[in-house]
Structures are given as structure tokens and as C-alpha cells.
Specification:
single chain; mainly alpha; 0% strand; 81% helix
Length: 202
């Protein structure tokens, strides 16, 4: 019962962190209106615009009105979220009392989220190289790599979530894992949209 309560608290604190909300509000208050407007306008092109604005407004002072910094920040936020989820799911493998199918699904998910982190890391590297590209061909090469790695990461996240499909998997483990994976997936989707938008600016 105590473990069930712990999982509930962890899940809720992850989604509704007061520190994150307060930091976002404080940042928005100190950021320029032009930067906030740029982020809001850019996020309209993403699949999850509300999440996009919430995640990136806190970095408005750094982003300003740069599509490059917007894409880089979105990707960095996504990578951070994926790393946090990786740690959370990895800890579940040591939890006692799991069903056999739950254990298998969690282990498979750990592999998928490891791949997600690896691919997002490579995407971050490729996006940085876009900034130092000497010509359009070099920019296009690194941009294509960044888009490919980010898209592949999104596939990994979907595969992890699919591993918990079916009513037989219903329960606290499924709910906890899928909530986190879903959030990473939404962040990744948004990051990919902003990367694609940045690609059009060169």
C-alpha cells in the first residue's frame, strides 16, 4: 500500500510540480514580451502548443526570437525529460511484487528509453553542428541527421508505451510509466516540429 501511495505521489509531482509552475511564472514576468510572443507564435505550429509554451517560456530570456535557440532549447528540455524518465523506469525493475508481464514490459521499456536518450543526445549534437555549418549543404546534412534522430526517438517512446497495452496490464505500473512516456513523446513531437521550422530558416 505504501509503494502504491509513493507511485501516486511521484506521478502527480511530476506533472504538477509547483516549483516548475512558479519558475515559469517568474520567468514570464521577467522576460520580454517580444520573446514570449515569439514562443507562443512558434508553439502554435506544434502538436501540443500548450505544453510547448509551458515548457519553453521559462527560457524566454535565452531564446529571445531565435528559431535556432528555440529548437535547441526544446530538444534540451526533451532530453532532460527523457533522462528523468529513464531513471524512473529503471528503478521499477528493482520493485518487488510485479507481474511477469509487467517485469518484461518494464525491461523492454528501459531498453527503448535508453535508445531514446541516445538518439536525442545525437540530435542535440547535430543541431549544434548546424550552427557552425559553412554552407547550405553542410547545414542540410546536419539538420537531416537531427530530424532523423529525433523522429527515431519518438518511435522508441511509442514502442515502450505499446508494451503496456491491454487490460491485463492495467494497474499502477502501467499508469505511471505510460504517463511519463506520453509526456516525453509529446515533448519530442514538439521539439521535432520546432526543428523542422528552424530548418526552413536557413
Amino acid at each position: 500500500m505504501a509503494k502504491q501511495y509513493l507511485f501516486l505521489i511521484l506521478s502527480l509531482s511530476y506533472l504538477f510540480s509547483p516549483e516548475l509552475t512558479a519558475a515559469t511564472a517568474a520567468s514570464q514576468a521577467g522576460a520580454s514580451k517580444k520573446a514570449i510572443n515569439f514562443i507562443q507564435s512558434s508553439c502554435k505550429t506544434t502538436t501540443y502548443p500548450a505544453l510547448c509554451v509551458h515548457s519553453l517560456s521559462v527560457y524566454a530570456n535565452d531564446i529571445q526570437t531565435s528559431p535556432k535557440r528555440l529548437a535547441e532549447t526544446a530538444l534540451a528540455v526533451t532530453l532532460n525529460r527523457a533522462q528523468s524518465t529513464k531513471l524512473f523506469v529503471s528503478r521499477l525493475t528493482r520493485m518487488k511484487g510485479l507481474k511477469k508481464r509487467e517485469v518484461e514490459a518494464v525491461k523492454d521499456c528501459v531498453e527503448e528509453i535508453n535508445d531514446t536518450v541516445d538518439r536525442l543526445t545525437k540530435s542535440v549534437q547535430e543541431l549544434k553542428l548546424c550552427g557552425s555549418a559553412r554552407d547550405q549543404d553542410q547545414f542540410a546534412y546536419h539538420m537531416s541527421n537531427a530530424q532523423t534522430w529525433t523522429s527515431a526517438a519518438l518511435t522508441d517512446e511509442n514502442t515502450c508505451s505499446d508494451g503496456f497495452s491491454g487490460r491485463v496490464m492495467d494497474g499502477r505500473i502501467k499508469n505511471s510509466v505510460r504517463a511519463r512516456i506520453m509526456n516525453v513523446g509529446h515533448e519530442t513531437s514538439n521539439a521535432l516540429s520546432l526543428i523542422n521550422a528552424f530548418a526552413k530558416t536557413y
